[in-house]
Specification:
With about 325 residues, this protein is an alpha/beta fold. It contains nine helices and 15 strands. α5 packs parallel to α7. The longest helix has 25 residues. The chain starts with 7 loop residues before the first strand and ends with a helix. The structure holds iron/sulfur cluster. Iron/sulfur cluster binds next to loops.
């Protein structure tokens, strides 16, 4: 199928949200997995995955972007409109697109980073070393407690496998991205206000344990970034999920200035600080690689984090 609209769009973060300076690559759309919070399920699209074939148009867009910008470093995200490693066809488009970006990046003297985000273990079938001039590929996977995967991410692989894929990706030459998102408070069924503190503490312990396991196994110098973000739902998602009595709809979720529902500010900052402080004191070298995704600048400040974009983090890495 040919893509008629743009392949490359500047990420729109929403009002008052910190801009991470990413471009979305829409080389494919849709995904057949059943993540209950996935915004694709609420868009007017079929669930059948679609891969776009008219890469000549993509090349024109890359050329136009590079030739019209003085920016030296670009961050592309090919995990926003699909799971990046969903099918063998996704593998082909990753390499074809990386080749196109690489050729144009050399011509216009740019340095590019492409995030490939997945909840599969399909990289085990990828089995070729990757190396592109002026382009680094980032293998990013969501690290969630198994209870959350079981309950809300149907069809995706367990946390144990996700960690194994990170180790494998490193061997193939990918940088790695640790994605602690979406952070979901669970279980919530039957809990009352007084139990929230316990649930949040339990959640922080779970994430600390996951980080410990991962960071014993992968090389710090290959880690591009660690992003952290609590669950966010659009108004439409929140309304529909609430009607369906989804356990995602926690009673301490509020409408934020960007029109999305999130956990209350004290809950989010407690969670973020619990994870950030753990990284800061246990793995200080990784502290500068932490970003909050889709958060307000006052939340970054509450967590003591210096505001930075993906482009700025990329410049530190490579
Ligand atoms: S794996 Fe990603 S794209 Fe697929 S359903 Fe889950 S969140 Fe959506």
């Amino acid at each position: 199928m040919n893509r008629k609209t743009c392949f490359i769009t500047k990420y729109q973060y929403g009002d008052f949200i910190v801009d991470l300076d990413e471009y979305v690559l829409s080389l494919a759309t849709n995904c057949m997995f059943g993540c209950e919070y996935c915004y694709l399920k609420f868009s007017k699209i079929t669930l059948e995955p679609v891969i776009y074939e008219n890469l000549d148009k993509f090349e024109q867009e890359v050329t136009s972007l590079f030739s019209n910008s003085t920016q030296k470093v670009f961050y592309f995200n090919f995990g926003e409109t699909t799971d990046s490693f969903l099918t063998a066809k996704h593998f082909n488009i990753i390499t074809d697109a990386a080749n196109i970006i690489s050729q144009q990046a050399k011509k216009y003297d740019k340095s590019c980073f492409v995030e490939l985000r997945t909840k599969t273990n399909n990289i085990f079938y990828f089995n070729k070393k990757i190396c592109f001039e002026n382009v680094k590929l980032i293998y990013a996977t969501s690290l969630s407690p198994q209870v959350v995967i079981d309950r809300f991410e149907h069809g995706t692989v367990p946390i144990k496998n996700r960690i194994e894929t990170l180790i494998f990706a490193e061997k193939l030459g990918f940088l790695t991205g640790l994605r602690l998102e979406p952070i979901i408070i669970y279980p919530i069924y039957g809990i009352e206000y007084k139990d929230v503190v316990f649930s949040v503490k339990n959640l922080i312990d779970n994430y600390q344990q996951i980080l410990k396991t991962v960071l014993e196994k992968i090389d710090f110098k290959n880690i591009h970034s660690i992003t952290i973000s609590c669950l966010r739902l659009t108004k439409k998602q929140f309304k529909e999920l609430k009607q369906k009595k989804s356990k995602l709809c926690f009673f301490e979720m509020f409408l934020c200035p960007d029109g999305k529902y999130r956990y209350s500010r004290p809950i989010r900052t407690t969670i973020y600080n619990g994870i950030i402080d753990f990284i800061r004191w246990t793995y200080p070298v990784l502290y500068k690689k932490i970003l909050l995704s889709f958060e307000f600048d006052y939340i970054w400040r509450n967590c003591g984090l210096e505001i930075k974009s993906m482009v700025e983090v990329s410049s530190m890495v490579g």
